[in-house]
Amino acid sequence: MKETILGVHVSNETYDSIKKQLFQHMEDNKQSFIVAVNPEKIIKASQDSSLKELINGADYQIPDGVGVLIASKLQGGSITNRITGIDLMNVLIEEASIRAKKVFFYGGKPGIAEAAKQKLLEKYPSLIVSGVMDGYVKDNQQIIDTINAADPDILFVALGSPKQEEWIRDNRSKLNVSVFQGVGGSFDVFAGNIKRAPAFFRRFGLEWLYRLLKEPWRLKRQLALPKFLLKVITTGRK
Question: Which InterPro entries match (predicted)?
């Protein structure tokens, strides 16, 4: 099921429901493209038709931001489960390690994907990482050939948004991959280079507050949330 917020589709799923669907798609040789959406991205998409088309063209638009849940409630929707990109990545990796499915890490600075791989193998020793490649390789055909040779079931792409989503959109038909997820800076987190907010802040959807306390310069960016919610109220479901 999906809802529409300011013209942008948002999937109404849980970690468990999306996990079950994605692994079934692998068995059915069906491709799935996951995009994370938050208030900032929805606002940009509402003003940029090409970005809106890119997001709405994905198979799953996960609500990665507590503001999306609030917006759903304001317009009478039923999205109550926040699904963060990094946590979904971890859920898929854990399940892949259990089911002997192969994953590939593409993107990030040189060495980051490899470091993330090593940390994740410590956590999930049975995980099959069929390949890694940094985001600085220029030859797109080389990238495609390398990924296809590795034959992964899941491809995590960390090129920053919306570049990573554009790359997936443009290349998914050339790749023998079932699940595609753009994961932003997640490789850095798994590699240990970036520290996530403590569990208390994550549990209540307050990562934004933690980041604001650590980095006060983010205040201007955080003020976008009230503007987003006001626009939802005044614009309605369009």
Answer: TagA_TarA, WecG_TagA_CpsF
How many percent of the chain have pLDDT more than 70? 87
Q: What is the pLDDT of residues 108-127, one digit of tens each?
A: 999 999 999 999 999 999 99
Which tens digit of pLDDT belongs to each residue from 12-53? 999 999 999 999 999 999 999 999 999 989 999 999 999 999
CB distance 6 to 42 below 8 Å: yes
Angstrom CA distances, 152 to 75, 78, 138, 217, stand at 40, 34, 21, 40
d(CA 194, CA 11): 28
Taken in order of first residue, the domains within the chain and their CATH numbers are 2-191 (3.40.50), 199-230 (no CATH)
CB 25 within 8 A of CB 178: yes
Amino acid of residue 177:
V
Structural tokens at position 151: 């034959």
The H or E element spanning position 128 is strand 128-133
